Amino acid sequence: MTTASRPFVPRATGRPMTRPEGPQKVRGTAPYTVETPGTDALYLSPVQAGVARGRVTAIDTSAAEALDGVVAVLTHEDAPRLAREADADHGVLQSATIHQHGQYLAAVLATSSETAREAASLVTVDVVEEPHAAVLDEDSPEVYAPAALVVGATDDTRGDPETALADAEVVLRATYRTPMEHHQAMEPHATVARWEGERLVVHEATQAVSWTRQALAAAFGLEESSIEVISQHVGGGFGSKGGTHPNTVLTALAARVVPGRSVRYALTRQQTFDLVGYRPATVQHVALGADRDGRLTAITHDVVTQGSRIGEFVEPAAAFSRGMYAAEARRTTHRVVPLDIGAPTFMRAPGEAPGSFAGESAMDELAIELGIDPVELRVRNEPEVDPETGLPFSSRNLVACLRRGAERFGWAERDPAPRARLVDGWWHGTGVAAASFPVVRFPGSEATIRAVGGRDGDGDGPVGYAVEIAAAEIGQGARAALTAIAADALDVPVERIDLRIGDTAFGAAGPAGGSAGTTSWGATIVEAAERFRDKYGDDPDDGDEADASTPDNPWASDYAMHAYGAHFVEVAVHADTGEIRVPRMLGVFAAGRIVNPLTARSQFLGGMTWGLSAALHEESVLDDRFGHVVNRDLAGYHVATNADVGAVEVEWLDENDPYVNPMGTKGIGEIGIVGVAAAIANAAHHATGVRVRSLPITLDAFL
Amino acid sequence: MRPFAYERPDDAAGAVATVTADPDAVFLAGGTNLVDHLRLGLATPGTLVDVTGLTSTEITDLPDGSLRVGAGVRNADLAADERVRTRYPALAQALLAGASGQLRNMATTGGNLLQRTRCVYFQDLTTPCNKRAPGSGCSALDGWARHHAVLGATHEPAGVACVATHPSDMAVALVALDAQVRVLGTDGERTVPIGDLHRLPGDDPSRDTVLAHGELITAVDLPPSPIAAHSTYRKVRDRASYAFALVSVAAALDVADDGTIRDARVALGGVAHRPWRATATEQSLVGAPATEDTFRAAARAELVDARPVESPRGGTAFKLPLVTATLLATLRDLTARTAATTTREDPA
Ligand SMILES: Cc1cc2nc3c(=O)[nH]c(=O)nc-3n(C[C@H](O)[C@H](O)[C@H](O)COP(=O)(O)OP(=O)(O)OC[C@H]3O[C@@H](n4cnc5c(N)ncnc54)[C@H](O)[C@@H]3O)c2cc1C
Ligand code: SF4
C-alpha cells in the first residue's frame, strides 16, 4: 500500500465547473447506449411470462418466424447454453421454469424494432401455472435471516435492549412501513452486443462497466479479457444500473446466434418494472427507551423486507440506527420474506432511505412524548464515538447541520402544538429529521496517466495528460469532478487533462454507486498522479506513463467515517381535501470537501427531490394475485413535480476531513434523500395532528 | 404492435365512410391516447384514419350566442381562448388541470372526449378485464382501484362488472356547462347532449359512448349561459400537477343578494364511468341558503346511491368523504367569489 505524500492542493477542486460533455448533451449529440452505431444491427424484443410461477410446456414461434424481417427467435429449447444455470436471475432462456411474472421466455431478433415487437406478440406460450406468493407478510412461515447484509451483519445486539426498554422512563414503540419502489431513470436500460468470434463487445447503460464485464464473464464462462464493455453516457442509474440484470445477458445471448452482427435492446418503460431491480418494501418495528431528559437508553430497530426467490438483496434499513444516536443498549435485525417476484437491488441510499423514515419519525414521536424540541432531542443523543464500531469519528457535524438549519429555517419561533396553524384553509406545520451516509471506498479501480505532447511530442504547447479510468458518467458529473481532481493531482490547469472513462479497455474500476465514485476513482487518480510525478517530475516526455490501483485508506480501521445532514421542511395540508403541499424544504449537509459546487448542488437537490417523491408519491403497486407491478408507467408511478413543492434550499458546511482520502471527499450522491420522508411526515403531523407511519403519505390519511 | 395502414381522406365525410365500412379502422387525432394503446397492444387496428385537419380547428361564435369548438381544436388552444376563459372559466381551468403542456399541444377536443379509462388492468394485457376482453372478469374489483368509481358502476355479475372511471377533465366541465356534441355519421349530422355521450358500463363495459363505429365528432357547442361565467373547476389528485383526478368538481352557482342559491350546475369527475352530472346535488342546492350545511346536504344527496369498490388492495371508500370535501371546498369558494370577497390560494 502506498499513500500520497504530496499534499493535495485544491485549485480546480472546489470551484464550479460545467460538465465537459454538457454542450453535447444539450445538443442531443452525446450518444447514449441504444444510439451506438452497430454492425448490421438487429433489434431484440422479448416474450415475457404472464404468470408468477409455473412451467412452459410449449412455445410456438412459427408465426413469428414467418414474418418478413425476423432473423431468429430464441427460446429455452434452442438458446445457447450459459455457464451459470445456477443463478436463476441470469440463467436467461435456460429452462422451462418460470420464477416471476415478466420473466423472459423468448426473444425475437428482427431488422426493425417494430417487426421484432410484432413478432414477439405472435409467439404463443403454453404454461402450467403453479401457486405463488407475492405478499410481504411478516408472519410468513418462510421468513428467514439472511447470512449478511451487503455491508455489516444481519443482526447486531449491544447490551440488553429488552431490559433497558422495560426499565426506561419513557418508551416509544411504533411500526413503520415503506413500499416497493422503482428507480425509473430517464434512460431505460439498454444494451448493444456483438460477438467477434469468442470476443464479446457490449455497449451498456451501466454504473459499472467492470461489474457488467464480470457478470457476463461468469454467465458465458469467458475470461474477462475476452469481453469489452463500453458506456460513455448513462441517463441515470440510481442503483438499478449497478448490478447486471437479465436484459443484458439476454441481449448478449441472442447476439451469439448472429455472430458479427450487433443486437440492440432497450427496455420499454413497462419492462423496467419487471426485471431490473427495485427497492423492496419494508416493515420496521422501532422501540426507543429514554429517560425524562430525553437521553436514549435503548434503541431497537427490527426490519422485515420483501425478498425474491431468484436473487437476494436485503434492504439494510435497520443499519441506519446502528450509528445515529448514543444508547447503551441496541438491537438491529433484518429478516426477509422470499417471494415469487423479481430480484430487488440497491436503490439510492439503500437502507438509509427507508430506515431513516422509521428512525427519524420515531425520534419525532419521542420528542413529542417527552415535550422536548426535536432538534434538541437529537443534540442530546449525539454520541462521542461511533456507537457501532466504538471508533472516533473522522469528522461528525450533525449537530452543526441541525443548528445551522434551525437558524436558517427560523426554527426557534416554532410552536410545537400540532394542528394549530390554519392559513387560508391549509393546515401548516414544520418538521425536522437528521441524515447520515457512510463514506465508502470501493477497492480495485485502475488508473493510467500518460503524457501527451511535451518535449518529444508533436505539439508545441505544454504537456497534456491522458487520464484513463473506467469510471461511469451517469449524469452525476463524474467527468467534471475527475477532471478537476486529476488537474489538481498533477498540478496543472484543467484544460490540460484529457479524461477518458467508461470503457473496460482502461482496466477495472469500481462503480458509480455507494456515493463512492468520486472517492474511489479520485483516490486512484491521485495515486497514479503521485507515481507519475515521482517517476517523471512535472516536465515529462511524450508517452511517459504511470498507473495505480485504488490505495487502501490507512485510517480505515482508526476512524468511523460518515457524512451527515439535517432536513427542515414546511408542509401544508388542505383542511377539507387533505391535499399535501411542501412550501419549503431546506437541507444542510456536512459531507467533506465539495469537489464541484455546481453538480454537487444538483446531487443534494436531486436527493431531496427524491425524498419528497418517496414521502408523497412513490409506490410500485404489486398486485399479489398476478405477481407484478400494475402501475407500470410514469402516468401510474408518480414522482414529484415542481407544483408539489415551493422553495428547495440546499446548503453545505465547510468540512475538512483529513482522514477520508487525499481530496477530503465523503460522497454526496445519496445523503440528500436520507431523512426527507421523515421530515415531511413529522411536519404533516405538526400541521394536522395525524401521524402517518406508512409511505407514501396520501390525502386519504387526512380525510 | 401490429402493422397498420395509414389513411388521410379528403374530407370528414370520406373519413366517416372509410371507418364505417371497415370494422378494423379507427380515427386518429392527436394520438396521445391511441398511440399509447397501439404500443401496449391494446388497440390493434388495421387502418388509422387521420382526422386532424378534417374537423375544424376554429372556435367560432354562433348567431344564437353559442360558441362552437371544432373537434380538431387542440386542448392548449381551447384553454387559451379569451372567450372560453371569460364565458366558461371552468372549461379553461379543467383543460389546464389536465395532462401536461406538451400533451395539451397535441390533444384535440374530439380525442379528449373519447380517451379511454386509465384503469391499469385495462391497459395490461396479462390481466382479466371485461372492458378489454368481455367476459374475462374485472381485475379492479379486488385489485388496485384507487382511481375507480363510487357511482353508477357495475359490480356484478362478474362477467360484465366494471368499476372504471372516465379520465377526462374537460368532459366534466362540458357536462356542467350543458355542451352539445355534434356527430357526423353516414346518415348525416346529429347532436348529442354531452351528458348522454358517455355510457355507464351497464351490462356492456366494452362500450364507452353511445357513438356507433365510424361516427365522427365534428364539434362541441357551448350554449350561452350567464351562470357559466361564474363556473370553476377543482381537481383533487395524488400530486399537484400531471396526474388524473381522484375527484374533481365542475360547478357554477348563482347566489342572490340574500344568500339564496338561485341556480346551480355541478358535475363530478373521477367517480364514474362517465363524467357525472350531479343532479341530486343541484336540486338540493337550488332555493337553499349558500351555507356549509346546505353544501353538505347537497353532497349527501348525490352520494345516497354511492357504492365504493371495497378492494383489499386499495378501494374507493375514501372517495366518499373526498367528494363531500371537494364539493364543500368548491361551493364555499364559489360563494365567496360571487360575494366578491378574497379567494383562497394554494400556498405552494
Ligand atoms: C401521461 C398522460 C397524462 C394525462 N393526463 C390527463 C389528465 O390529467 N386529464 C385529462 O383529461 N387527460 C389526460 N390525459 C389524456 C389526454 O387528455 C388525452 O390523451 C387526449 O385528450 C386525447 O386526445 P387526442 O387528440 O390525442 O386523441 P387520440 O389519441 O388521437 O384519440 C383518442 C380516441 O378518440 C378517437 N377519436 C379522436 N378524434 C375523434 C373524433 N373527432 N371523432 C371520433 N373519434 C375520435 C380515436 O379513435 C381514439 O379512440 C393524459 C394523457 C397522458 C398520456
Ligand atoms: S374496472 Fe373496467 S376497465 Fe378496469 S379491469 Fe374492471 S372491467 Fe376492466
TrEMBL record, chain A:
Alphabetical list of InterPro entries matching this protein: Ald_Oxase/Xan_DH_a/b (IPR000674), Ald_Oxase/Xan_DH_a/b_sf (IPR036856), Ald_Oxase/xanthine_DH-like (IPR016208), AldOxase/xan_DH_MoCoBD1 (IPR008274), AldOxase/xan_DH_MoCoBD2 (IPR046867), AldOxase/xan_DH_Mopterin-bd_sf (IPR037165)
Domain Aldehyde oxidase/xanthine dehydrogenase a/b hammerhead: 27-131
Keyword list, A-Z: Molybdenum, Oxidoreductase
Keyword hit for Oxidoreductase: yes
Pfam families to which the protein is assigned, alphabetical: Ald_Xan_dh_C (PF01315), MoCoBD_1 (PF02738), MoCoBD_2 (PF20256)
Source superkingdom: Bacteria
Coiled coil spans: none
Region Disordered, residue ranges: 1-30, 534-554
Name this protein carries in UniProt: Xanthine dehydrogenase family protein molybdopterin-binding subunit
Organism: Actinomycetospora straminea
Source taxonomy: Bacteria, Bacillati, Actinomycetota, Actinomycetes, Pseudonocardiales
Automatic annotation (TrEMBL), chain B:
Pfam families (alphabetical): CO_deh_flav_C, FAD_binding_5
Domain FAD-binding PCMH-type: 1-227
Keywords carried by this UniProt record: Oxidoreductase
Record InterPro entries: CO_DH_flav_C, CO_DH_flav_C_dom_sf, Diverse_Substr_Oxidored, FAD-bd_PCMH, FAD-bd_PCMH-like_sf, FAD-bd_PCMH_sub1, FAD-bd_PCMH_sub2, Mopterin_DH_FAD-bd
Keyword Signal tagged: no
Transmembrane segments: none
Protein name: Xanthine dehydrogenase family protein subunit M
Species per Swiss-Prot/TrEMBL record: Actinomycetospora straminea
Taxonomic lineage of the native organism: Bacteria, Bacillati, Actinomycetota, Actinomycetes, Pseudonocardiales
